[in-house]
Structures are given as structure tokens and as C-alpha cells.
Amino acid sequence: MHIRSIARIAVSLVVGVGALTLVLSQSQGGRWSSGVARAQAGGATAEAVLHTAAGDEVGRATFTDAGGHVVVEVAASGLPTGFHGFHVHGVGQCDAPDFMSAGPHFNPMGAQHAMHAGDLPSLLINGDGSGELRASTDRFSVGDLLDGNGTALIVHGGADNFANIPTRYVPEPDAMTFATGDSGARIACGVIQGSG
Questions:
Q1: Which among 2, 87, 115, 142 could bridge 44 via Cys, Cβ 3.0 to 4.6 Å?
Q2: Using CA of residue 150, residue 34, residue 22, residue 195, what is the dihedral sign?
Q3: pLDDT in tens, 79-90
């Protein structure tokens, strides 16, 4: 008889206007996966289908209101390996080729990067082009995502430094770092739409 042990670590990041909570699970094989408890049924929901500039579908995301926070779940495929900046942007429009129509990060409080309401954890894409992310945030509600000009979900080409540049390297992060975390070009976009 084999007994499997599972370790769970809750990691809470309290930043400026809100808190972001991730749960990491480790199985007997030593693999770590991130996740959050599934949202309670009945919460408002929205979804986004991510496409490249060529129109290829590369992922789907859901947003579910769950007791004062929103559960964000993403499954992606066909993307370049590595970490990618991953953000909600402030306009619900995804015009190719560069998706600049989605505007800047969703930022109703006027904060600097890593504190934007739309800043999400980086999306890690594995060697086979696939990746999954589950996170929980209290920085917005599903209703906030659907108000006004709407919002869009963007995958960037590079890693997000979250404006974390120690002053021993430079006096302070530059304007681009504070705006985007130097995460580069927008390689996939999906308009966030109500789904229930």
C-alpha cells in the first residue's frame, strides 16, 4: 500500500490596492502546480479566447466572481516557451497586428506597474507550447472588466520584471518598466466578454 503525500503552501502577495493569492501544491513526485479553490457556483463569469495576430487560437481564460475576489483560470497552447507578461488591458478590442487597440494595462486607480489592477502573475509556457495558470485577485470584479470600454487579456512576448529593478543596478526603473514591466510585444489577445 502506497501513501501519497501532498504539501500545500498558500502564498499571499499584498500589493498596494489589493492582494493576490496563489496556492502551490506538491505531489509525491515533487512536481509543483499552482491553483486556487474553485469558485463557488453562482458568481458572475466572463471569458476570453486568446488569438495571435494571424488569428490562431492559443488559449482560453475564465474569470469568476467568488466571494470578494475573482478566480482567473487560463489554459494556453501554441505559444513560445518561457515566462510571459500576462495582463488585463483597459480596452476590449484586439486589432492585429500589434493589439495596441487594447490600450494600456487596466488601471483605474492610476497606480504604477506591479500595482495595476490588471497585473496578473506571469504565464509560464512549457517546452511543448502549453501552459496553465490559476490565480485569485481582489483588484477587480467581473463587472469591472465588462464596464465602459470593456477589457482585453494580453499575453506578451517576454517576461515581466514587475518593475523590480534593484537600485544597485540603476537609480530607479525607467518609465517603460513602470508602465509594462518590459514584457515586450503583445503576441496574443482576447476580448473579455460576459459568459453568464
A1: 142
A2: positive
A3: 999 999 999 999
